[in-house]
Amino acid sequence: MKLSPQLKSLSLVLAGKRLLLSEIPYQTTLIQEAVQKGYVQQMSGLQTSGSRYSCVRCGNKDKSLLGSHHCARCQTICHYCRHCLMLGKISSCQPLHVWAGPPIPQPIIKNSLRWKGELSLGQKVASEAVVEAVEQKSFLLVWAVCGAGKTEVLFHGLERAFATGKRALLATPRTDVVKELYPRLQASFPDISMTALYGGSKDRHANAQLVLATTHQTMRFYKAFDVVIVDEVDAFPFSYDKSLQYAVEQAKKPTSSTILLSATPSSTLLKTSHLQVVKIPKRYHGFPLPVPCFKWVGNWQKRLKKNKLPSVVLDWIQTYEAKKKPLLLFVPSVSILTQVSEALQNQSIKHASVHAADPKRHEAVQAFRNRHVSIMVTTTILERGVTFADVQVAVLGAENDVFTEAALVQIAGRVGRKKETPTGEVIFFHYGVTKAMKAARRHIEQMNEEGGRA
What are the DSSP calls for 273-342, one per residue? Predict the structure, then answer.
């Protein structure tokens, strides 16, 4: 079936997606023509079951996140979804559009991998498992310690996917990770069309063969991918938000491979039926994970209220500042971050600070990476998915509930990731040791024991 140039162009935009009319960059007359010819199907954005509504795009069924109002478009009471409103308004009278015409094949590209690095023994085992999962369309978890080189473990599996005309999605909960992975994958697969999707991104390559996206962005996709990879599957918000998990499931084709990546998988995930698990207990460079030490600092919040840091924390900063080592100081909240920043300013210590709602956080992270600033105060936004050479790490207020076992393991994993600087220090400054702190240290020690036997 031969399509006109306009319909072919429309098919590339719509293939594997469910889009509102406002999201389709073509004239309404062309879209209506495609609907009349059966190339495009329209479906309600909201499903009903009795008096209950659910959102087709994000799966939301929560009444508190489903609103209604008198609609100027349909001149009646119209229901809509508040949960995914940031992606465009899903309402009773605005259908989603799906390509129903001839399938859009992906190119078959042999030998697409240009990466020339070598895999460690643990990486090789995991890489072979990923290739098998791609070929067998199976469900795999790669359980790898922080700094094991999970991205490189995916390369041969992706190469196999592209050699057989498959389309792949690599989804991750955080924008920072998408931005870090995109140039690495572009360099490794220069002949593969790819796009990076996150809030505010400009690269929107239609029907790209490899899509890197935040898990929020996957809500637009529908039965699009032969291979779905979810990085940091245990991370917030993906691990807590059922709609993001729903969106990833909706993005898969009926038969697809699913590959999950995590350094700290939950016990619930590990009990999932049909899940195959491959483990990498050792970092790619062979050095053990840094084991955190605990240091009591007393009532540190009382000190901060006086615009002062605990002396032991200040000593730690000044010691490494003299050695010109970059420092990451994690704090429990934005309010504490502000207080710590003011205390550092009071000591005339140059630094930067970042948190999730900071509009300039990407610029600040890049400045830290480029050594334009050597001290970064951060919330848990930088606990995972970022690599800084030769960094030393501390947590102030490690006893706070926000610092779970998984969060503390990930924070410790920021140290020693580069083979040129494979060691470093991790300190948990606390006002009382918690179960999470002990569990995190035990987790790291157990992985080091396993890695020593590998």
Answer: TT-EEEEE-S-TTSPPPPPPEEEE--SHHHHHHTT---HHHHHHHHHHHHTT--EEEE-SSHHHHHHHHH
Tokens 């240290």 belong to residue: 441
Distances (CA, A) of 326 to 154, 196, 262, 314, 425: 30, 29, 26, 15, 11
Give the CA angle between residues 350, 354, 356 to the nearest 5°. Answer: 175
Tokens of 84: 């995914």
Burial 346-360 (b: 16+ CB within 10 A, else e): eeebebbbbbeebee
CB within 8 A of 386, min separation 6: which ones?
176, 177, 180, 365, 414
Q: Transcribe 192-226 into DSSP letters.
A: S-EEEE-TT-----TT-SEEEEETTGGGGB-S-EE
Residue 132 has, within 13 A of its CA and on its CB side, a CA count of 13
Asked if residue 202 has pLDDT above 80, the reply is: no
Q: Which backbone phi and psi does 322 adopt, to 5 degrees?
A: -65, -30
3-state secondary structure of 175: helix
Predicted confidence at residue 203, as pLDDT, reads 63
End-to-end CA distance of the chain: 55
pLDDT 10s digits, 297-342: 999 999 999 999 999 999 999 999 999 999 999 999 999 999 999 9
Instruction: Note the pTM of the prediction, 2 decimals.
Output: 0.90
CA distance 390 to 69: 55
Q: What is the CA radius of gyration of the chain?
A: 24
- Cβ neighbours for 230, distance < 8 A, ≥ 6 positions apart: 171, 172, 215, 238, 248, 258, 259, 260, 261
Q: What percentage of residues in the chain have a pLDDT greater than 90?
A: 84
Q: Are 405 and 234 within 8 A, CB to CB?
A: no
